[in-house]
């Protein structure tokens, strides 16, 4: 039971890292970016190609898995997304979902449709026992890395001048510009961080989720569930939702594998009925 719980927590924290960018852009910037999974796929392919073709160690590829999608995110935000900030959510959804299919087609054309595989370092393979409980080394690594990212992101948004400027820019762009805040730079940086986190999550998730050109669609469903259940009032809601979904998914696959993903959707419906405003209600 404890092994399943630990595996579920690791999976849930990985989901939150990939969903955090969407939670920020949707919650703070009011922008629906369904192409978030495409940036996760980019990060995954950066790690896989760097390991398999360049021979880089797994840990050294993780900064690249953050930086490359972050740079792609900056370019996309300045050239594409910035034009849609004042458009309707339907326009944003249609535009971003089209980017997903373009990214999937491009990945299939350039790299093929087969699964990308990586070999983890020996120190992250296997399990060890603590008080009779088997703990996967890589799962524990995921929990520690994702916990640092979660705390760092929360502090960045709530305790720094950047976070305050971002909230001011979202609340009233005209007033923020009048106060000397570079709104364009704030939004570009926010997209870069969100895209980089998605890419890092995609790299970390190769071992658990696999990696192929369909990766963005598979991840998009879980990311949307996490953000929808958790709400966009803060990052706390999506974080709790990710832990619940991750644990329920792992437990469901272990105890009732014949139900598949049905258990996750059933849980989503129940939580939305009980808490339609999200797990963490917005402040009034």
From TrEMBL:
One of its GO terms (cellular component) is plasma membrane. GO terms for molecular function: transmembrane transporter activity. InterPro entries: ABC_transp_permease, BCAA_transport_permease. Keywords: Amino-acid transport, Cell membrane, Membrane, Plasmid, Transmembrane, Transmembrane helix, Transport. GO terms for biological process: amino acid transport. The chain crosses the membrane at residues 12-34, 54-76, 97-118, 138-157, 219-248, 254-274. It is a multi-pass membrane protein. The keyword Transmembrane applies. It is found in: Cell membrane. Coiled coil: none annotated. Belongs to the binding-protein-dependent transport system permease family. LivHM subfamily. This is Branched-chain amino acid ABC transporter permease.
């Amino acid at each position: 039971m404890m092994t399943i719980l630990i595996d579920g927590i690791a999976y849930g924290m990985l989901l939150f890292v990939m969903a955090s960018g969407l939670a920020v852009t949707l919650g703070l910037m009011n922008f629906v970016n369904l192409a978030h999974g495409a940036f996760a796929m980019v990060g995954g392919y950066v790690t896989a190609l760097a390991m398999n073709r360049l021979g880089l160690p797994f840990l050294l590829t993780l900064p690249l898995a953050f930086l490359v999608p972050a740079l792609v995110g900056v370019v996309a935000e300045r050239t594409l997304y910035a034009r849609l900030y004042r458009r309707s959510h339907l326009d944003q959804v249609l535009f971003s979902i089209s980017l997903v299919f373009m990214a999937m087609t491009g990945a299939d054309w350039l790299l093929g449709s087969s699964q990308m595989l990586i070999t983890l370092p020996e120190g992250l393979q296997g399990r060890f026992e603590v008080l009779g409980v088997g703990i996967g080394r890589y799962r524990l690594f995921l929990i520690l890395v994702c916990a640092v990212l979660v705390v760092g992101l929360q502090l960045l948004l709530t305790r720094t001048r950047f976070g305050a400027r971002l909230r001011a820019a979202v609340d009233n762009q005209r007033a923020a510009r009048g106060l000397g805040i570079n709104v364009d730079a704030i939004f570009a940086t926010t997209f870069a961080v969100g895209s980089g986190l998605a890419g890092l999550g995609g790299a970390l998730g190769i071992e658990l989720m696999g990696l192929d050109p369909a990766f963005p669609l598979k991840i998009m469903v879980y990311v949307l569930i996490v953000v929808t259940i958790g709400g966009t009032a803060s990052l706390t809601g999506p974080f709790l939702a990710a832990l619940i979904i991750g644990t329920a998914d792992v437990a469901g696959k272990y105890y009732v594998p014949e139900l598949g993903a049905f258990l996750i959707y059933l849980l989503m419906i129940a939580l939305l009925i009980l808490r339609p405003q999200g797990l963490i209600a917005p402040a009034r």
